[in-house]
Structures are given as structure tokens and as C-alpha cells.
Design brief:
Distance between the termini of chain B: 5 Å
CATH architecture of the largest domain in chain B: 3-Layer(aba) Sandwich
Shape of chain A: globular
CATH topology of the largest domain in chain B: Rossmann fold
CATH architecture of chain A: 2-Layer Sandwich
CATH topology of chain A: Alpha-Beta Plaits
Largest sheet of chain B: 5 strands, mixed
Helix content of chain B: 25-40%
Order of helices and strands of chain A: EHEEHE
Number of domains of chain A: 1
Number of domains of chain B: 3
Number of helices of chain B: 18
Number of strands of chain A: 4
CATH class of chain A: Alpha Beta
Strand order of the largest sheet of chain A: 1-4
Oligomer: heterodimer
Number of helices of chain A: 2
Largest sheet of chain A: 2 strands, antiparallel
Shape of chain B: globular
């Protein structure tokens, strides 16, 4: 099981909920848009990452979960 | 002339020029008969056999991405209703080679289009050219009227603007009239125009393919090296006596490249290689290089769509960089926050540094922004622009210090910056060319079910 975070930059409007919910992996740039510091989500943060993806108002935060 | 089979002619033209051999001295594009007299008829055949020839030739894409053409062909070949797009957008202001091919040698590009379509099993192709390229559009229209290839080829004029030529933007425009990049994946080869597997190729790549299909991969490899076979079109501008498009062999020394363009008009301080998504290299280093992928890579550069700009000693690299990054920032498609805000801030920062108005922390902030915007757009616009600025900061570092202590009075180098951005997604067409989004492009000119042409 692995999970990776991506942002669809066209959809993203910089609401920044993701950086609030998941500061361990996401920070904001000077204009409030997310920078994914670490795309690979460690198992202990998976639940938070799912929450962050669900919370994005424009559905721009993508969590690709794969069985491997 | 009887059409030959693939690579039937063992001997092609020797030396250079190859692609440009058929360019008439007067500006008129050759007729189909004149074209065939020069290069021989379009060979029959296609499919896996043709892809095999392309693979043996080592041909790589000439639109800037430098991707192996055979791999691209294979990714689309044999899949359900594939389609070919000739991306003649050439939105890089410092590049003029695709325009030249389309204006002067349209039949060579169309030969390559037909061959690429046959290689992947496509029955339709779209040739996309910027709407301001009226002479290219006219030449293509005339050439298409002379041909009957068994492939439906449609000509489409698209809006101008730096990012409109990006391949997902080309597909987006043809589908919906919006010339802006889309989020990838999927890439066009997997899910392109109307969901079809779409082969997007640059005109020069197709013109090279048209020669490889005639003369074979061994002939193609007579020029260049094992790693970089063949010839390449390079648009050379800046401080040279005869700025223009030149066909050169890979492996050519940069000094010989400059000589081909009439030689430098003054001592040089830097070369910009690869266009505005490219890399500045100091002249001392750049003039030692050859036109080879490995050598350019060792200097942190890539040939891109074949652009070399020479910057003379009298000009100011920082000011030129400020002008170009300001242009690039203005050319953002306006879709992605990091590109819209980041490039605008980067452009303003470079301007402040060039004009001696920067505060002490400006350079560090600029460097951080350049790192941060990379990889954060839907397309590579922010990446290319950031790389360009980063190379400027490295090469013109001594200038930075000088500019901190006062204004610089260097005259503008007159580099081709490009006209102000057209409104992205604007729907305007040249006469007789289909406006985008008005109809399914593949249905306008159905492919006739007959063979290409009677032999003559």
C-alpha cells in the first residue's frame, strides 16, 4: 500500500485547507498555494491525508492510493 | 516517377543541406512536381517497417522535448482510431525554423505527416499553425490542394501566445477552442483529441522522417554522431552578422555555428541556448561546446527547439533577462497560481536587480522563488522560465554586484522577444481555414478511400 499526494494546479485556488490539515507534508508558498514537500504519504499520516484531500473545496488535492 | 518502397534509395543527398536542399532561391514554395524532382516520390509502405527505420535512424523530436520519435510512434501505433497532429505552432519567439519549413517546403512536412499517419495507422491528421503565420498557412493550403494522400489532412489556424503551442494546449484548442494546457496525465498519446490516441509531432521531425523513409537510416547517420545522428535546424540570432535558420550537422562546433551565421559582430559574453526556456552559458564556456546533447547537458543546457542567441559584450545580460522573463510572465496561461503569481514576482525581482533597485534580501528571495515554482504548473511554463532565470543568475553574477551600485547604461541587444500576447483562446482564423471548435475537425475532409496518387 502506498499513497502519493499531487495537486492539480489548474483546479487549485489556494484555499489552503490542505496545509492546515497536513502541515507535515504541505506548506504554502508566498501566495498561499500549496507546495508538497513530500509526496509519499507515510502510513501514520494516511488518515489525515485522506481528510485533507476530501476537505479541498475545489478537489484539487489528489491522493493516489495504490496497492503494491 | 514511380513511388519507391521504404528506404529504397540507398543514396540520398551528400553533406548539407539536406532538409533545406529543396528551398527555392525565390520565396515561392515548390510545386509537388518540383518537390518530387528534388527529393524523389513519397515511398509506399508504413506500419512497423517504417517505425523500425525511424528507430534505426535514432531520430528524436525537434519541438523541444527531444523524445525518441520511434518510441512516440509505437505508443500510438495500432491503437484504436489514432490521429496525428502536426504542431506547427512554433510559439518560441527566437525560433523560425518550423515557419520556414511550412512556408518553403510544405510538401516535405506533409510527406512526413502522411508517413507518420501510415506508421501509426491513422487516417486523419491536423496541421496546426499560428494564425499570424499567413504565408505558412497559404503555402500549406496550396500544397494540400495539389495532393491526394489517402489521409484526411486538415489545416487549422490557432491563436498565438507562448503556451498555446504546448501539446495539451493544442489538443484543448482543437477540441474546445481553448488554447490552454490541461492537467496531465493523461498525455495526448494516451487520451488526446476527442479521446483518441494522438501523435503530436513537430514539422522538422516530420520533414526528417520524410527523408529517412526515402534514403534510409544509414544515410541519416552519415551526418552527426552515433549519439546525435543527422542534421538539425538551428535559428541563430543576436550578435551575429546574418541571423537566420541554418541546417547544421550534430557535432558542429559552436564557433562554426556562429561562423555559419556570418560570424559574431562583436566579442560575445554569453550564449542563450534553447530559447527562452533555455539556458545562458558564458561565451568562454559556450564557444568550446559542440552541438551535441551530451556536451550541452554537461553545461546544463539543451538545444530545445534549436535556438542559439549570441549576446554581445556591449549588451547587458541582466537587462535582457529582465525583458525576457517579463515577456514569459505575461505569457502565462493564467490557470495555475504558482505560475501566475510566481512568474510575475520573479520578473519584478529580476527587473529590480537589473535596475539597481533591489534590497539586500532580493537575490535570496528570487532564488527561492525560482526553486519553488518548478514543477507546480499544469505545463512546464514555470519550470522553463525559472531555469532560464537561474542560469542568468549564475552567468551574470558579476553583473549583479555592479548593478547594485548604480544604473547600467548598456543598450538593448534587440533580442527577439515576441509580440504582446494575443488573448489566449481567441477564435480568429485566416481565410479559408476552419475556426476551432466549429466542427469535429476529423470530419471536415473525409479520407478518400483510394490510393495516394497515380504514378507518373
Amino acid at each position: 500500500m502506498s499513497a502519493r499526494l499531487r495537486v492539480n494546479p489548474i483546479m487549485c485556488e489556494g484555499h489552503a485547507f490542505c496545509a492546515d490539515l497536513l502541515p507535515e507534508l504541505i506548506r504554502l508558498d508566498d501566495w498561499g498555494y500549496p507546495i508538497i514537500e513530500e509526496a509519499e504519504v507515510p502510513p501514520d499520516l494516511l488518515a489525515l491525508a485522506r481528510r485533507a484531500a476530501d476537505a479541498c473545496p475545489t478537489l484539487a488535492l489528489l491522493l493516489d492510493e495504490r496497492d503494491d | 516517377m514511380t513511388p519507391g518502397t521504404l528506404a529504397a534509395r540507398r543514396t540520398g543527398p551528400e553533406g548539407l543541406p539536406r532538409l533545406l536542399a529543396g528551398m527555392a532561391v525565390d520565396a515561392a514554395p515548390p510545386t509537388l512536381a518540383g518537390h518530387e524532382d528534388r527529393y524523389g516520390p513519397l515511398p509506399t509502405g508504413g506500419g512497423a517497417e517504417l517505425i523500425e527505420l525511424v528507430e534505426q535512424s535514432g531520430l528524436r523530436g525537434r519541438g523541444g522535448a527531444d523524445f525518441p520519435t520511434a518510441v512516440k510512434l509505437r505508443a500510438v501505433a495500432g491503437r484504436r482510431s489514432p490521429i496525428v497532429i502536426v504542431n506547427g505552432s512554433e510559439t518560441e519567439p527566437a525560433s523560425a525554423k518550423d515557419r520556414l519549413l511550412l512556408m518553403r517546403l510544405p510538401h516535405l512536412v506533409l510527406d512526413g505527416t502522411v508517413l507518420a499517419a501510415r506508421a501509426v495507422g491513422a487516417r486523419h491528421a491536423v496541421v496546426r499553425v499560428g494564425e499570424r503565420r499567413v504565408r505558412a498557412l497559404d503555402a500549406l493550403q496550396q500544397a494540400l490542394a495539389e495532393r491526394s494522400d489517402g489521409i484526411g489532412i486538415e489545416l487549422v489556424a490557432g491563436p498565438e501566445g507562448y503556451v498555446t503551442g504546448e501539446e495539451t494546449a493544442v489538443v484543448h484548442h482543437l477540441e474546445r477552442g481553448i488554447a490552454k494546457p490541461t492537467f496531465i496525465p493523461p498525455r495526448p498519446y494516451e487520451h488526446g483529441l476527442h479521446g483518441r490516441p494522438t501523435l503530436v509531432q513537430n514539422p522538422e521531425t516530420l520533414a526528417q522522417l520524410a527523408l529517412i523513409a526515402r534514403y534510409g537510416p544509414e544515410w541519416f547517420r552519415e551526418l552527426g554522431s552515433a549519439a546525435d545522428p543527422g542534421s538539425v535546424l538551428v535559428t541563430i540570432s543576436g550578435a551575429v552578422a546574418a541571423p537566420n535558420v541554418y541546417e547544421l550537422a550534430f557535432g558542429t562546433r559552436m564557433t562554426d555555428l556562429l561562423r555559419a551565421a556570418g560570424g559574431r559582430t562583436e566579442p560575445l559574453q554569453a550564449l542563450l541556448i534553447g530559447g527562452y526556456f533555455g539556458t545562458w552559458i558564458s561565451a568562454a564556456r559556450g564557444e568550446q561546446l559542440r552541438l551535441s546533447r551530451a556536451e550541452l547537458r554537461s553545461a546544463g543546457a539543451a538545444l530545445g527547439s534549436g535556438v542559439v542567441i549570441a549576446l554581445g559584450e556591449s549588451a547587458c545580460g541582466l537587462h535582457e533577462t529582465a525583458r525576457i522573463i517579463s515577456y514569459l510572465a505575461g505569457e502565462s496561461a493564467g490557470q495555475c497560481g504558482p505560475c501566475v503569481h510566481g512568474l510575475a514576482a520573479i520578473a519584478e525581482s529580476v527587473r529590480a536587480l537589473a535596475e539597481g533597485q533591489a534590497h539586500s534580501g532580493e537575490l535570496a528571495r528570487l532564488k527561492r522563488w525560482c526553486e519553488e515554482v518548478r514543477g507546480r504548473g499544469a505545463c512546464h511554463h514555470p519550470d522553463g522560465a525559472a531555469r532560464f532565470v537561474q542560469s542568468a543568475l549564475a552567468v551574470f553574477e558579476p553583473e549583479l554586484e555592479r548593478h547594485r551600485h548604480g544604473r547600467c547604461a548598456a543598450p538593448a541587444a534587440g533580442l527577439p522577444i515576441g509580440a504582446p500576447a494575443a488573448t489566449p483562446g481567441r477564435r480568429r482564423t485566416a481565410s479559408g481555414v476552419r475556426p476551432p471548435g466549429s466542427a469535429d475537425p476529423v470530419r471536415r475532409r473525409p479520407a478518400p478511400g483510394r490510393p495516394r496518387r497515380e504514378s507518373r
